[in-house]
Amino acid sequence: MIEKHKGLILVDSTVGQGTTFSLYLPASSKSNVPLEPESALVQGDAAHILLMDDEPAIQEVAKAMLEKLGYRVAVVGDGRQAIEVYKRALENNDKFDVVIMDLTIPGGMGGKEAIKVLRQIDPQIVAIVSSGYSNDPIMASYKEFGFNAIMSKPYTVSELAIALQKALRLVSSVSG
């Protein structure tokens, strides 16, 4: 995964002394997205977010980012798990406000397939598709595939916060 982003991992290990991992990623050519005041980023009642991604490192970092922004987060590894967890939350009157779904899950159900099932369960679902493959046709025509928004990987906490703000406005307009 790190190679896809033109990065590098170096390992230096000495018996009896320990191991050092060095991670190198290129600087982004994107300009910084202006961060809105933190009070505008955190949704008062800790919105409930379901994050679907097959990469443990992305799960961990994205969950930490979401929690830092004040959200309640559940994490799953593929579409089948997302469907089960979403159904269970509905049954327990703890509906997810927004679902963030990785488009491609090698060997598992990805976002394209899972959103079809989730839309049948809940036509009002608010879903963001996330992918590192920005040239995928679904990323260009996300609404035609049942998603409300897109978020290209890798994303910053600012980009995540802004995408969720927009998505939560959709939730408010549907329920309000």
Write the layout of secondary structure elements.
Blueprint (H helix, E strand, L loop, with lengths): L7 E7 L3 E7 L13 H4 L6 E5 L3 H13 L3 E5 L2 H13 L6 E5 L8 H11 L5 E5 L5 H4 L8 E4 L4 H19 L1
Parallel strand pairs: 3-4, 3-5, 5-6, 6-7
Antiparallel strand pairs: 1-2
Helix pairs in contact: 3-4
Strand content: 15-25%
Strand arrangement, major sheet: 4-3-5-6-7
Helix segment tally: 6
Helix content: 25-40%
Task: Return residue spans where pLDDT drops below 50 for at least 5 consecutive residues.
Answer: 33-44
Overall 3D geometry?
A: globular
Largest sheet: 5 strands, parallel
Please, how many domains? Answer: 1
CATH class: Alpha Beta
Structural class of the helix and strand makeup? alpha/beta
First-residue to last-residue Cα separation: 41 Å
From the alpha-carbon coordinates, what is the Rg to the nearest angstrom? 17 Å
Going by CATH, the homologous superfamily would be Response regulator
The total beta strand count reads 7
From N to C, what is the helix and strand string?
EEHEHEHEHEHEH
